[in-house]
Structures are given as C-alpha cells and as structure tokens.
Amino acid sequence: MPTDLCHYRDRPLALIGRSIARRPVAHGFIVVAVLGAVFCSIGVQYGVKRLVDSLTGGPAGDPWPAYLLLVGFIAGDNLLWRAGGWIASSVFVRVTGDLRSDLFRHLTGHAPAYFADRLPGALTGRITAASNAVYQMETMFAWNVLPPCVATFGAIGFLASVNGTMAACVAAAAGLVMAAMLYGSAAGAPLHGAFADAAAKVDGEMVDVVGNMQLVRTFGAIGREHRRFDGAVADEMRARSRSLRYLETLRTAHALTVVAGTLALLAWAILLWRAGRASPGDVVLVCTLGLAVLSATRDLAVALVDVAQHFARLAEALRLLLSPHEMRDHPQASALVARGARMTFENVAFAYPGGAQVFEGFSLDIAPGQRVGLAGPSGGGKSTLAALAQRMYPLRQGRILIDGHDIAHATEDSLRAAIAFVPQDTALLNRTLMENIRYGRPDASDEEVWAAARAARCGGFIERLPAGLDTIVGDRGVKLSGGQRQRIAIARAFLKNAPLLIFDEATSALDGASEEAIRGAMETLMAGRTVIMIAHRIATLRAFDRILVLQSGRLVEDGAPDQLMARDGLYRRLVRDEIDRLNEKQSAA
Ligand SMILES: Nc1ncnc2c1ncn2[C@@H]1O[C@H](COP(=O)(O)OP(=O)(O)OP(=O)(O)O)[C@@H](O)[C@H]1O
C-alpha cells in the first residue's frame, strides 16, 4: 500500500478504497448485514402475500407456515440492520480518524512556500471536510445506496414469481430511472464543486480574521472585515442554492416518474386480477413491491445526489492537500553528522516560487566555530540566506554544505538536529512553557528544561508565574511579553545543543536591561558553535568574528567589524545611521 498520499490526489475513490482495504473484514460484515436486512425487508412483502393467500384460500388453508415466514423476515429485517449499525459505529469512525491523521501528516510535510500561498484555516478546514465527506459517503453507501439497489433487485425477483413480463417491465423502468439519476448527479458535479470551493473560502476567511483579531481591531477594520465576510458568505449561499436547486430539479423529475409508474403498475395488476390471471395476494404483492422498487429508486436518487456533493468536497480537498511535497528527502539521502559545523554556499542561485531572483552565483564559506553577523538594508536577503541554510526551499542552482555534506542530500531529521534556529518572531504552541521549551529536545528531563530556562535568563519570570513552567502560554504565546517569548526560544536552543546556531535578531524585543541579562547566556550558548546571526541593530554584532553585508542578494562587504569600520563602505554607513538614530531618540526623550 503506497504511503505517499499524492497518488490519491485525483483519485478520491481509490482513497476510499484504500481505507476500506485496511479493514476488509469489518466492511465485509457490514455489507453482508445490509444485504441480509434488505432481503428480509423485501421478504416481509412476500410473507404478507403468502399470509393473505392462505387466509383467502378458505378455512382449509393453514396460515401458520406463512406466519412463521413473515415473523422470520420481520426479525431479520430489524436485527440485521442493528448488527450492521454496531459494526459501522466503530469502523466508519476509525476510517475517518485514519484519514484525518494521514492528511495531517501529509500537510505538515509541505515546505514553507506551500503555507505562504494558502490560508491556514482553509487547509485545516479541508482536512475536516475531507474526513467528514468520507464518513458521510461510507454511511450513505451502507444505509442509503446499497439497500435501495438490493431492494430493487430483490423486489424484481419476487415480482417475477407473479408475472415475468411485469417484472421485466419494472426492471427496465427502474434501470432507466437509475441511469438517468446517475447521469443527472454526475452532471451536477461542477455546481457541487463550486459550492465546496465557496464553503472552504468562508472557513479560510474566518480563521484568518480570528487569528489576526488584534490587527483588525488596531486598524478599526471590524466593519470592513464584516463586509468582506458577508461577501464570501453571499458567494457561498449563491453556490449552495444553485447546487440545491439542481438537486431539487432532479428529485422533482424523479417524483413525477414514480407517480406515473405506480399508476400504470396498479392498473395493470387490477386488469390481470379481473382476467383471473392474478390472485388478491398477487395484487397486494405488485402494489407493495412496485411501490418498493419505485421508492427505492427515489431513495437511491436522493442518496446519489448527496454522495455526489460529498464526493465533490472530497475531490476538492484532496486536490489542494495532496500536492507532492516540494522538499522531500533525496532518494540517496544520508544522515548528516555535523562536527564543527563548517557552512559553505557554492554558487547558489535562488528565487522564491513565483518571485524575483534573490541570489545568483552566491558563494560563502563559514569556518567551524566562527560567529558571523548578517547585516544590510531591508530586503537584502538576510532572512532568505538563513532559510536556505536550513533547507526551507529548494535551490535553483548550486549547493549548500555543512561539514562537506550537501544538505540537499541529508535526511531531514539529521539536518534539523544539526541546527538550532531562534526566529525573530518567536513561535510558541498553545501548550505549557515546559512543553514549549522541551520542543528543542523531547527526551530532556524536567531538570534539563529548568537548567535551559535559567541559562536563558527565564528563571525569574517563570517563577513569578502562578503555575510556573506549567503555565499555558496562549495562542502563539500571547500571555508572554515579546522579550519573554524570545528568551523561551533561546532556552529551546540551549536544550537542543546543536553545533550550528542561526539567530534572526533574537534580542530585538528585549529592553536594555533584559538584553544585558541575556548577553552572558548567549555567550555561553555560542561558545564552540558556528553562529549566523541576522541583526538589524548592528551594535549586537560588535563582538562577532565576521560581518557579512548583504545588499540585493550580493555580498558587498565581508570582514571583521573593526576592518569594516575602517573602510568607507555600507557597513560604516549603517553603523553611523544607527548611532544617529539613537542620539535623536535620546535627545527627543
Ligand atoms: N516568502 C516569500 N515569497 C516571495 N518573495 C519573498 C519571500 N520572502 C522574502 N521575499 C523577497 O526576497 C527578498 C529578500 O528578502 P529577505 O526577507 O531575505 O530580506 P531581509 O534582508 O531579511 O530583509 P529584512 O531586513 O527586512 O528582514 C525581498 O525582495 C523579499 O521581498
């Protein structure tokens, strides 16, 4: 069974088949129970005919065999449905759970570029929609599609015992009605698909706004957001109404066909009875079975139409979620064993997907244990360089090596283990502080977590929190200050103990006192490791071994801070600008 879900991107039915194949016995039981139950419920009509015939056959007729047959069918009809229901209540739920987990695993394997282009809410909403759609389709198939199909064949079989021609006519009519309904359901797929798209868009908009409530409020944009949302909801309502009106048209056409068919069948049975070619029981059977067949095609039509809608939702979700991973491990990938962590960029060319070229023929060598600061104007490529060093995006050309190992040929896990990254905007999960710090090394003991927290100067504020390390930090860490969040990120890096450290201006949110407090901790953390630090405040880089000044993706200066200060270059201008800004601030204060 392929583990790569991409195979199923345009094959929703195959994906459902895969889920069924994982639990064949339980699914088999459900089908058998449903088939048995439907057979019994048709059999009930036949039992009634036998009873009517034995009761109208005169006092000599023995009604008890017919009675027993009828009771047997009634018991089977009721109990087999429930047996199927019990099994389904666990197996269908598991199928849904498996699918959710599989889709989540696939989603989290995508590279950052994938997430940059899509709304998080729309993605998570699609996982829920896809697993619900599969659940609904399994349920509908078991209770609403399979039964009417079997009922139709069973009823036609019983009808054949009364009149072969009549059975053939009913079979032909039922076949035609079903074919027409199937065709109609398939033809409506684009309408249902449009509704699925519009519904997913509404989900995405909701999550985007709720996740950015502070921004929305700060800019007094609540009214604007309401109007934008109303627009998305109006689109969804229009698409849904179109889809439902189409379904109603199909159902109405079906209802008219059923009325005409029933009238004709009944009249035919009465004529046969008057001609002495059918018993009263036969007329009853024709009435009940004919109606059963025609209403079975109605149930089937309704179910098929619903299934078509769920199918459209599933297909739409799979198309979005199951695109191939952009950054999968190379087939010959091997574990990277970083020792001193020398980092080398060889003739690197890179552009963001759909974006302009950021690097072209870029080369750089960072010696093991060297502390390198990245400086330069905004948009120069500092964050991009840090992202490429972590293999967040594929290169257009060239190689990036750690200790001589091309990172494109390193296993993802070994690469992540070699690098500790402290981002500018510290991401925290809505879990406890303990869990957030331990993210750096899941097997760390409580004592090690505490040691890392103290080393990053987090001890003081954590001890003042009512629940200490067990405090839940809130969505993205909203319950902590920016500086506290950054110190947690540094604690994480302490715990990870990787040979290569990448900081994206980790101290930008710290006030002077906090920065001083943490400087010593960072010194300890950096000792003996290769460090790349993106710094917008150049003062942070004073004690670094080497400064790289990036401008428009080019390395315009490279050297020790003192050397660069001695030159009349961009670095010196940036330092002077910073000093001027600080002086202006101080005189304004
Ligand atoms: N996800 C992205 N998709 C497309 N283009 C991007 C993306 N991220 C950055 N860029 C572009 O790449 C170029 C380099 O950006 P980068 O963020 O690396 O600069 P930077 O030097 O870190 O800037 P800053 O100092 O403002 O953080 C910029 O032109 C930017 O617009």
UniProtKB/TrEMBL annotation:
It is a multi-pass membrane protein. Residues 29-309 form the ABC transmembrane type-1 domain. Pfam families: ABC_membrane, ABC_tran. Residues 343-577 form the ABC transporter domain. GO terms for molecular function: ABC-type transporter activity; ATP binding; ATP hydrolysis activity; ATPase-coupled lipid transmembrane transporter activity. The keyword Transmembrane applies. The keyword Membrane applies. It is found in: Cell membrane. One of its GO terms (cellular component) is plasma membrane. Keywords: ATP-binding, Membrane, Nucleotide-binding, Transmembrane, Transmembrane helix. The chain crosses the membrane at residues 25-44, 64-81, 141-159, 165-183, 250-271. Signal peptide: none annotated. Gene3D superfamilies: ABC transporter type 1, transmembrane domain (1.20.1560.10), P-loop containing nucleotide triphosphate hydrolases (3.40.50.300). Its main location: membrane. Belongs to the ABC transporter superfamily. Part of an ABC transporter complex. Transmembrane domains (TMD) form a pore in the inner membrane and the ATP-binding domain (NBD) is responsible for energy generation. This is ATP-binding cassette, subfamily B. The lineage of its organism: Bacteria, Pseudomonadati, Pseudomonadota, Alphaproteobacteria, Hyphomicrobiales.
